[in-house]
Amino acid sequence: MLIALENQKLVDAEDAARRHDYLCPACQQAVVLHHGTRVQPYFAHKSLGDCGVASEGETQQHVLGKRQLAKFFSDWGVVTLEKVLPEIQQRADCWINRAHPVAVEFQCSPISTEQVAQRTAGYRRLGSYPCWLLGERFGRQKIGWSLIDRFASPLRGWGLCLLFWDVGRQQVRVVHHLYQDATGTYSYWQSWVANLTELEAGNQRQLWVPPINVRQFRRDLDQRLLRAAPALRPLQEILYLQGHHLAGFPAVFVTQHVTLPIFGQGLLVWRAVVGAWVFSLRGEVLTPETLRRLAEEGLRLIGGHLQAGRFDGTAGLVRAQRDFMVDLDAAGAVSRVKTGWQINVEPQWAADYTAWLENDEKKLG
């Protein structure tokens, strides 16, 4: 911790003298000044005891990063280091005092999804915006659902993004416009931001999404099924009951659309599962409510998520439903009627990947 009490006054560790009596501002228990020649000065509890807002262990990255971030955000308002918030029993690494306060959390140590959600909810109860910036430990991790679920949030000009603070460069690394392509691969763009003006300006580059290789994706699905991949086995079992093979999904199901990173195994797998269910209803009218139910059940089965810690995926799923039905309508497989969609004819599935490949090569030949 960087701030302690001395005679009921807040003292910064940089200005503190040795051999004085210091107390934690939150729990009033004794803390000790650490002030070496090679480390940034900081205070530490003699014993954490019952401190309700005790912070993570003070690595030098965390100590130095908090000071850097206080300077970085200073143009937004008066910044208070380690603001103690007794109403929610939390301590913000940096508290920016403005019309809508900002609580900056510089996260360097491991933290669970539940802990992030609890802290985020606490700041929101106070009407403040929780801004999570991640340290080196998280910067080395592969971008996937675990990071996205805990820390990703929409930011104007950056789309859905993650923020990392680089202590060495003293800059924000913005992993922005997070998305999944139709094969389920997580993708994003990356920008370095040196000041608040650049952060507020947002991304200024034109973004281009590379097309997916559908043939390779089918082959990968086939290989994973042969290896009995646990994530795919229940999906193949469901399709088997309909007489289908996952890697043999119809050509009309293919799309180059990208989605919010909520689709688990990916949009193509979701379309295969939901599409099989839809065409099992031939002779009936597919109502919007039935489609919604199938879409949500399909998302669950492919390991997707409607909710994350700081954003909602409902609109993304609704968009995926709409786009799928538009594609099927354009192919003549369904028709729009007053109460929903009339099923016309089921698109042709291949018996498996090998059968699809042989048929595809005949078309090319």
Q: Could you explain how this protein is built, in words?
A:
It comes from Levilactobacillus fujinensis. This is Competence protein CoiA. By secondary structure, the chain is α+β, with helices and mostly antiparallel strands. It has 11 helices and 16 strands. The longest helix has 17 residues, at 314-330. The N and C termini lie far apart (70 Å).
Tags for this entry?
365 residues; alpha+beta; 3 domains; four-stranded mixed β-sheet; four-stranded antiparallel β-sheet
Major sheet: 4 strands, mixed
Strand order of the largest sheet: 6-7-8-9
Tally the helices. 11
Order of helices and strands: EEEEEHEEEHEHHEEEEHHHHEHHEEH
Class of secondary structure makeup: alpha+beta
Beta strand %: 15-25%
Spatial shape:
elongated
Mean pLDDT: 90
Q: Termini distance?
A: 70 Å
Whole-number count of domains: 3
Question: In short, what is this structure?
Answer:
The protein is 33% helix and 24% strand. The protein has 365 residues and is an alpha+beta fold.
Secondary structure layout plus pairing:
Layout: E1 3-6, E2 9-12, E3 22-23, E4 30-34, E5 42-45, H1 60-72, E6 78-85, E7 90-97, E8 102-107, H2 113-125, E9 129-134, H3 136-139, H4 145-151, E10 153-155, E11 159-166, E12 171-180, E13 186-193, H5 196-201, H6 214-226, H7 233-241, H8 267-279, E14 285-286, H9 288-301, H10 314-330, E15 334-337, E16 340-343, H11 353-364
Parallel strand pairs: 8-9
Antiparallel strand pairs: 1-2, 3-4, 4-5, 6-7, 7-8, 10-11, 11-12, 12-13, 14-16, 15-16
Helix pairs in contact: 8-9
Organism: Levilactobacillus fujinensis
Domain Competence protein CoiA nuclease-like: 58-180
Domain Competence protein CoiA-like N-terminal: 14-53
